[in-house]
Amino acid sequence: MGSDLFGSLAESTCAALVVASTSHDLIVTENSMMFPLMITATGIVVSFVTSFFATNIMRITKDTVERAVKW
Predict the structure, then answer these.
(1) Contact status, residue 23 vs residue 36, Cβ threshold 8 Å
(2) Residues 45, 53: Cα–Cα separation, whole Å
(3) Burial 32-65 (b: 16+ CB within 10 A, else e)
(4) Contact predicate 40/13, CB 8 Å
(5) Could you tell me if 50 and 24 are in contact, meaning their C-beta atoms sit under 8 angstroms apart?
(6) Binning pLDDT at 50, 70 and 90, where does residue 1 land?
(7) Distance (Å, whole) CA 39 – CA 36
(8) DSSP readout, 9-47?
(9) pTM of the full structure
(10) Which of 47, 55, 63, 69 is most exposed, with minimal Cβ within 10 Å?
């Protein structure tokens, strides 16, 4: 996920929908729509975790902003 979280989340969801609809292995199962949902759910959880680490674990000052954003 990039800095534009909504755009990255929407793009990864659309890409997962394309993969799920064109993959023969996913189409033959009844749970073919679970793949995009898992990608989206994972992205949401990871964004929460990284936001927590960037704001609560590291002490952000004027000199450490770049390092915190890279984290």
Answers:
(1) no
(2) 13
(3) eeebbeebbeebeeeeeeeeeeeeeeeeeeeeee
(4) yes
(5) no
(6) very low
(7) 5
(8) HHHHHHHHHHHHHH-HHHHSSTTTTHHHHHHHHHHHHHH
(9) 0.56
(10) 63
Q: Which two tokens stand for residue 50?
A: 């990284």
Which residue ranges make up each domain of the chain?
5-70
Tell me the one-letter amino acid at 20. Answer: A
What residue type is 45 in one-letter code?
V
Query: CA-to-CA distance for 67 and 71, rounded, in angstroms?
Result: 6
Answer yes or no: is pLDDT of 12 > 70.
yes
- Per-residue pLDDT of 14-54, as tens digits, reads 888 888 778 777 777 777 778 778 878 887 888 888 878 77
